[in-house]
Amino acid sequence: MGQTSLAASRRTLALASGESAAYYSLPALAELGFGDPSRLPYSVRVLLESALRHQDHPAVEPHHVEALLAWGRGDPDAEVPFIPGRVILQDFTGVPCVVDLAALRSAMAAAGKDPNRIEPLVPVDLVIDHSVQVDFAGTAQALGKNVGLEFERNLERYEFLRWGQAAFETLSIIPPAVGIVHQVNLEYFARGVLRNKDGVLYPDSLVGTDSHTTMINGLGIVGWGVGGIEAEACMLGQPIYIKMPQVVGVRLTGALREGVTATDLTLTLVQMLRKFGVVEKFVEFFGPGLDVLPLADRATIANMAPEYGATIGFFPVDAEAIKYLQNTGRSAEVLDEVERYYRAQGMFRTADSAEPEFTDVLELDMGTVEPSLAGPKRPHDRVSLSKVKESFLAALAAPLDKDGFGVAADQLGASAPVAGSGATLRHGSVTIAAITSCTNTSNPSVMVGAGLVAKKAVARGLHTPAYVKTSLAPGSRVVNEYLAKAGLLEPLNALRFNIVGYGCTTCIGNSGPLDEPVVDAINAGNLVAAAVLSGNRNFEGRVSPHTRANYLASPPLVVAYALAGRVDIDFEREPIGTGSDGQPVYLRDIWPSGAEVAQAMTAASDPALYRQEYGNVAQSNPDWNAIPVDTGSAVYNWRADSTYIQQPPFFEQFPQQASAIAPVKNARALLMLGDFVTTDHISPAGNIAANSPAARYLLEHGVQKADWNSYGSRRGNDRVMTRGTFANIRLKNALVAPKEGGWTKYLPTGEEMSVYDAAMRYKQDGTPLIVLAGKLYGAGSSRDWAAKGTYLLGVRAVLAESFERIHRSNLIGMGVLPLRFKAGDSAASLGLKGDEVFSLPDLADDLKPGQRLTLRVQAADGALREVPVVAGIDTPIEVEYYRHGGILNYVLRQFMAAA
Questions:
Q1: What sequence ranges are listed for the domain Aconitase/3-isopropylmalate dehydratase large subunit alpha/beta/alpha (predicted)?
Q2: Which range of residues forms the domain containing residue 489?
């Protein structure tokens, strides 16, 4: 198979406009005798088209096309490159990306090279959506006050992004108070089909620096989350290399019953797929159930692919996708181009389409799905609505190591009054009820459902207890418009679900402070307070430091639990409250019918609303437009006094040649961690705690507590972020057990201190560090700082039983070696205590993917033993990234050589 013969697959597509456009035809591959792509999963066909179209790229070769055509029958470990059509960022992860791009330009200038050569080669869209915090809630003024504080706190970051917007031609930025990145992507950025500079059509595809980039797969667009490091390399022309994906097919049949929501279906699939095991696999949905599954429901399912562990959860393009593009205001030309292109490629699913082949097949009858929540600690721990009370009470008494809360028997009835309110808090009292997060705010059916629950509740005279912090953070301003047109904003406001911002708020820990009397009551009673949110993440310490039980739920159920004020309620048997007529009101009394939801949703499918809100979206925020910007400087003028933006140390005194891979000698364990340590535990996130190293740094630089902001807002400053790495208040490090939080032991003296302070002591000693961990290390959001902070603390290697895909890649991208225990081994089974001295004597420049290495372990008594481990480097290109000290070093050396 050669390049010339593959080029014969180029075809011309006639469009309704009379125009014609070139494309590379997959059916032509069968006509030309290369192989039949029609049996492949639709998601794999997107990878195949990319490889076929990029035959002129130095990293893409004919054998990659051959390997993809042989999917499922060829080498399961074959490595294939994927070059996505675009990159999408949110501001928490986007700011450090732009910081790194600015640093690359500074490094080029320092080397006497043209800094303008550092320019994204694919379109990059950044949505500022993660900076707004719910400081104010429950009033009509909440939105304005929160947005005002957002600009006040983040002006330095926004000034920097305004420079980036002017400095980089291919970077576009959506300003604050527009929407959540994934919903804006779904409603606005996505086109379905893209064109390159030569006018060639190809499938819309992307990667993003947020793990929930996967939401776009609901629209038939392949996209997944990557670390900021990998995204930057992709912007600069590097393919993403992946092992040939296994594709698990999920056959959907039946239809959801009355009263069951898309959220319930999604949580059911999350539990089912996590149990089956789909980590690092593609999931593709098929079957007759797709014919009755709305696009917004598909997007809800696709959104939570990280929670079930898959790389993507994909739905093929079909008539429903075209309908969604039409309803969200896309032009007739776009609709025609998308449908004609996918039909021509044999990638347009219909009810009569042949079902593709899959690695494995699961099946779900959607008629069996029941109302559900997930919690109280993990998104894949689904619990039926009817069992939430029973489940919560069991978790209260269960020990901590059994995912419980360890409440002593004599404290199960603990309570404490909320000063000045007459209310009393108990275990399970709901103190946060938030309609938030792209998962559900992008789905009109559940948003309308929440409004109807509120409308019926208000009509019956119900209200939310004052101790419940209620908030509504729509995923786009379109939601505000259709809720208003349906007459549902007013009842939501009456229950204090006032709009607090257009962004990702509570789901990422930007829930803001609880009222002091509520916090005092929680602390006085040592209570397990609860949060109920329509998000996708509920890991410990994420939502709020004051809510230990966190449940994911549909927006209508968020309203229901806000009204009840507690999670230990059986909605079937216990009233949700007492109406104005003195009679008990049950959830069934205020739950809307499917017909009522459908009628109210008419406004949500008005294309004019979407055209109105996105018509001039980049210039839609006058406060953003008023920020002054230096439009003439290709190289950023770094400010030494900034506490938000600092030039990172990655490229200082940068050698233009890579050093040889060297062994690790006499390393100490910085941390010894257990299973399911997430990037929330590793990466700085949420509030900056008093007396923490990061807080000390800010105070030393004249920043008072009121202006500390959050870790996420300071991701452009490595000095803050390194100090906050492994600082999560729920981190469990066996070296200091049972103490929780960002603490460790400086082993040479046995002193307990912060992780950062210990790492700096080891750095002074010249001692390399490793981290020991259990299963699924690095699960959760694709936070690049989980890898960057690890590297800057001096960690050379992380030894775990298994890794989540993105974090493993990010570690390599920063020059940190992921190591896997041999199958069946663990720190516990090997009797490791964490106080040993570790060496990797055979780590050398001839490192191979998946190579077995010897870990030499010296115990405190001097005894030596050797433990077999496996290098968690899976492909040859990852060896190159690691050899260069990280992916950006690799790319920078390429640019310098070319210049």
A1: 78-565
A2: 372-605
